Amino acid sequence: xxxxxIKSGTLIAAIAVLFLSIAMKPKPKKVIFFGDSITQQGMKAxxxxxxxxxxxxSTKFELIGAGIGGNKVYDLYLRMxxxxxNKKPDLVFIYVGINDVWHKLGAKTGTDYDKYxxxxxxxxxxxxxxxxxxxxxxxSVIGEKKNGTxxxxxxxxxxxxxxxxxxxxxxxxxxxxxxxxxxxxxxxNTEDKDRGILTTDKVHLNEAGNKFVAEQMLPFIK
Length: 222
Description:
This protein is an alpha/beta fold.
């Protein structure tokens, strides 16, 4: 009879230890990539988010894409509650601005510079208020020609500079994709093509572009 109680007690103790170990196991840090179609495509098989998933420890990091095609900074603001804040992330990459500049052409539905920065600051404020860390990303390219010769390089440079200022003002880490892309094109775009080096269509990333963006972002996760 005594042996029965000992065995029973041992089993209960083992179960208690098991549950305690599960309860004490740290949850992976949740990282959200918040942006437009570039981020949306980043979740595809060879997209930059999928590539990052292969490079980090899945027991330590959970990477989530929250990109929607055509989005501008105010679209992110409007869906921030559902797509970011409610998920309680530890870290958020904000990567938006291409459409805010690009859509000034044709449909004329881009975002004025001052309004862009105000919405962007509002994103920062709300995400930080929930206790999440933030990484700011400058918009990359709208055309891959070198030496500032793409049609709206001037505007894109201006908006990227605004993000750099916000990073300084808010004391936040900056993933300066704009500078990284410009430097890469200068070194590798020997024929001065407007696409095909890091992008498929002057904006969206090809295989090399996804690898390149993953390389730029990885240090901010680790």
